[in-house]
Amino acid sequence: MTKIKDVVRALEQYAPPAYQEAYDNALLQVGDPEATVNRVLVTLDCTEEVVEEAIERGCNLIVAHHPVIFKALKSLTGRTPVERTLLKALKHQIAIFACHTNLDHVHNGVNAKLCEKLGIENTRILAPKSNLLTKLEFFVPVEDTEKVLEAVHAAGAGQIGEYTDCSFRITGTGRFTPSSQANPHIGQTGKTEETIENRIEVIFPSFKQNQVMRALLKAHPYEEVAHFLIELENENQEVGAGMIGELETALTAEEFAQHLKKQLNLITFKHTAWPDKLIKKVAVCGGAGSFLLSKAKAAGADVFVTADLKYHEFFEANSKMALVDVGHYESEVYTKELFYDILTKTFSNFAVDLSATNTNPVRHS
């Protein structure tokens, strides 16, 4: 039987909580992690209506993109929509899990899904994040190198983009003198020893440091393992905000507008003047993306598709790049499909439902 904590673990492996913004609250917000999963409802927002839908469908876990608990709660009396949503979920023993900006930031997350919907190919992160990687250097006897490397790779070290088991080694001579209290793997106490060792270098996401170090120390034959941990300033090309890529075929402004409406099921959208050229290179950011305007310009985007743009921000467009505001809900609603794909590929012993509730608070007349 699958427990709620198993579903949480699978989603957090896909979008690590370490990648969420400091203001965010992506986690299991309601429910017992040890409870067995009966059926899961995936949604963009968790509202009273969504909880009611979960009750009707027999779902005891709701997976949402936007956290229902975002600001601190000082009471739970049903005075606000958030409090009423939580009370209804608690009454019917329905757990609520949110996967928010951490899912925005991974390379196969919210923006990748938006690019998929729009047919944008050859994608890359628009604004990669830095200071998220750590380099580990350690020394190991030549004959034990493969065993130790296998252990640290299994713990998450050595993956760079589409390449796994990445490492660098230099062979040299290690020299040491064990004390009378030591229990050396090589040599004798009180006697200086020299042995051929490999110096190994591997890179890993910083949040995996504890598990990588546990694996190293467990697999390494030495009583004392000489090692260095170095925080890297490198950009992590797989983690960051927004995405940019190219349409398979360049489109005229009118063709692109119709393409947007069709692919995102839009009634209308706001935009600046279209550039006087065919549209090929497109940047996107699901949700509020005005902070990426300069990045989209610098990347040479013909159009930047996002949401929640303010009036004065539209002035920041230029003749080379158009700004498009499709709406917050419209830019992220297909995250439901992303959750569905992750869960159905990972688990086969419970049903996953796409919520049919339209949680968009904005109406167009």
Q: How is this structure best described in words?
A:
- It comes from Rufibacter roseus.
- It holds the Pfam family DUF34_NIF3.
- Belongs to the GTP cyclohydrolase I type 2/NIF3 family.
- Helices cover 28% and strands 29% of the residues.
- The chain has 365 residues and is an alpha/beta fold.
- The protein folds into 3 domains: 4-100 and 334-354, Udp-n-acetylmuramoylalanyl-d-glutamate--2,6- Diaminopimelate Ligase, Chain: A, domain 1, CATH 3.40.1390; 106-127 and 240-326, Udp-n-acetylmuramoylalanyl-d-glutamate--2,6- Diaminopimelate Ligase, Chain: A, domain 1; 132-232, Alpha-Beta Plaits (2-Layer Sandwich).
- The protein has a 6-stranded mixed beta sheet.
- α1 crosses α11.
- It is globular.
- It starts with a helix and ends in an 11-residue tail after the last strand.
